[in-house]
Amino acid sequence: xxxxxxxxxxxxxxxxxxxxxxxxxxxxxxxxxxxxxxxxxxxxxxxxxxxxxxxxxxxxxxxxxxxxxxxxxxxxxxxxxxxxxxxxxxxxxxxxxxxxxxxxxxxxxxxxxxxxxxxxxxxxxxxxxxxxxxxxxxxxxxxxxxxxxxxxxxxxxxxxxxxxxxxxxxxxxxxxxxxxxxxxxxxxxxxxxxxxxxxxxxxxxxxxxxxxxxxxxxxxxxxxxxxxxxxxxxxxxxxxxxxxxxxxxxxxxxxxxxxxxxxxxxxxxxxxxxxxxxxxxxxxxxxxxxxxxxxxxxxxxxxxxxxxxxxxxxxxxx
Length: 318
Ligand SMILES: [Zn+2]
Prior knowledge:
Blueprint: H1 7-27, H2 34-50, E1 55-63, E2 74-80, E3 87-88, E4 93-97, E5 101-111, H3 113-127, E6 135-136, E7 142-143, E8 151-159, H4 168-176, E9 184-189, E10 193-197, E11 202-205, H5 212-232, H6 238-241, E12 259-263, E13 269-272, E14 281-285, E15 288-289, E16 299-301, E17 304-309, E18 312-313
Parallel strand pairs: 1-4, 5-8, 8-9
Antiparallel strand pairs: 1-2, 2-5, 3-4, 6-7, 9-10, 10-11, 12-13, 12-16, 14-17, 15-16, 17-18
The chain binds zinc ion.
Zinc ion (ZN) binds next to loops.
């Protein structure tokens, strides 16, 4: 049996093979920091060269704006460079606003049931994060819209399941079912299979060519990251940066002509500086202020004839 491949795929497969042989060789070492070495190899030789260049690749923690929730330490974070910049401690380690994160990948040398459970818990926590909306209504208020949440993946060089009758999907299902949801969207075990949840069924790919399962994971990310990024729209990154305390209003930037207004509910008098677009008109009657009084009442001027020049009350406006 021959299978259909193409030159592009053959070339990628050779790259995958080189990266994974190096990662496997590193995993046989026993010195401290082996995990770091493996991650470095996978990032620099597998994911960075094979994923589209507009996907940022880092490692670290993910944060959320509303409650300040922070994720566990995540091995590989795939993020959209155009949404929000991460704060990086070095070339790739840092803190990532959840709105920018597309995928997380937990890396294991030999995947055990305990590893799967820990990855599941980490993905579950991440699933509870809230996202800043990326759209606003015409009046500038937040517009609610649907978003694709971060997709959590497990990537393993090997598995403790080898030779077992159970599949990776069945083992994972024994962790989340029936009380929870499958927060992990896919599991890729090198030399075994790529599994992903299509929403109803765990689909697998056990290719007949070497590293087909890894190409499927990379292809899966390449196929979906744009739509995940698009669903986030344009969240305002400034909200992460700007402190909400210590703000106030100083003097007017130049002189404006104010007008005396009275509240129709509490009777409080104040001076207001209404805007009239850029028009030059004469208003006969009351001038009503758009913004209500603190009591909720309506603020209006005395009845009169008011002259407006270029959107502002003229000096001798009545
Ligand atoms: Zn009032």
